[in-house]
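Q&A log
Question type: sequence-to-structure
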Amino acid sequence: MYKIVTLGEPVLNKNSIMIPEIDDEIKHFIEGMFETMYERKGIGLAAVQIGRPIRVFISHSPKDMPRVFINPEIIETAVEEDIYEEGCLSIPGINADITRPYAVKIQAWNESGRPFTLDADGLLARVIQHEYDHLNGILFIDRLKGKKKERLLKNYTRKAGA
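Response status: OK
Response body:
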């Protein structure tokens, strides 16, 4: 199991780099990511959240299968938006309503090195967008504006210091 990097660590704000080759080390790393995500009761996890700014994330949302996304690219988003309360393993104890497109189309490679395209909607689309943001140095709270974001950050700082 890996240690989760939390808010304030500079690596969370970095753009992740492409993975040139899917080798045994990457496959082993992904296994550890799943172990960490399940241990922490998450439904998605990006490599950068465990300190490795490489373009890989995983998901396993309810009513879906475990998924691996290597070097992903969101190629289409729905016009229709949805509001949903999000949380993040890197910002424990903080949740907020975030507006995102209801559906996405994503291209990536799986852990076997096979390319795939996936149309996702609902919760899976949200998890994909949340984790994809991580690869670009964006946290879900960065999607909040003004006082709402300030209030959440104060709340987090108070909880983290307790």
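Response note: The radius of gyration is 15 Å.
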